[in-house]
């Protein structure tokens, strides 16, 4: 699988626009040719300019996915819909239930909105996955997992034996006129089967990267060959992150698996350095404009 980072927090090149957020263009090898996917849209239209610089036409995407309902991943959704409206076969956009609800960062008294424009939920191209509204045509062999194309499954993670990132504590959602701790029912991850290999792709891993990895391993019945994900070990708005020892403990858990890791965005450069101390060459930071064969 080829991963092109259309948008991420940092870039080593002035040719690309860096923003706090994430957008990936994935190309999965198939016998009939590559299957293309846009995974997240960044906070605005910047990912389109970066795609052009890389020579990528986002209108060739077969499908698009919103990993969760935060603006830094879905703020560019309208730009994608507008840019591809004239495509011969405009890509459907898969989202999870609750993705367009009112999500905020802060406290119930003092907070700011971090959600995605709810008006976009009315687009005919938006496909909502979940227990209540999953379309019948999607194969759902496992509760909460949906095959959107052969070898490509989107799944939620409800079993969470490992702790979630501490920065989740400031992330809230509005229910019934009041704010409560966000349970991230709107988060989904992607499991790719490419030949005999299994690759996990996750946006921010708000429910905990170890929980998501274990869920993916259960779905494919084997260890993962690669994980492409943000680990949400830092919260820029709050200026906080995971304690160094907690990050080192995560690194040790990741090291026990025969897996290579590719990370970005909400992992944070400082936390990445700690992870690399343990994982060495088995982990790589993918900055804006990076293209990697996984």
Key words describing this protein structure:
294 residues, alpha/beta, Metallo-beta-lactamase, Chain A, seven-stranded mixed beta sheet, 21 strands, 30% strand
Q: Regarding CATH, which class? A: Alpha Beta
* N-to-C CA distance: 5 Å
Strand fraction equals 25-35%
Which class of secondary structure composition applies to the elements? Answer: alpha/beta
Task: Describe the protein in words.
The protein has 294 residues and is α/β, with parallel strands linked by helices. It has one domain (2-293): Ribonuclease Z/Hydroxyacylglutathione hydrolase-like (Metallo-beta-lactamase, Chain A, 4-Layer Sandwich). Helix content is 18%, strand content 30%. The protein has 6 helices and 21 strands. The chain has helices at residues 46-53, 71-74, 77-83, 209-220, 244-255, 269-279; strands at residues 2-7, 23-28, 35-39, 63-65, 93-96, 103-106, 111-113, 126-129, 139-142, 145-149, 152-155, 171-175, 178-181, 189-194, 197-202, 226-229, 234-235, 240-241, 260-263, 283-285, 291-293. The strands form 4 sheets. The chain has an 8-stranded mixed β-sheet with strand order 9-10-11-14-15-16-19-20, with helices on one face. A hairpin with a 2-residue loop joins strand 10 and strand 11 (152-155). Helix 5 crosses helix 6. It is globular. The mean pLDDT is 93.
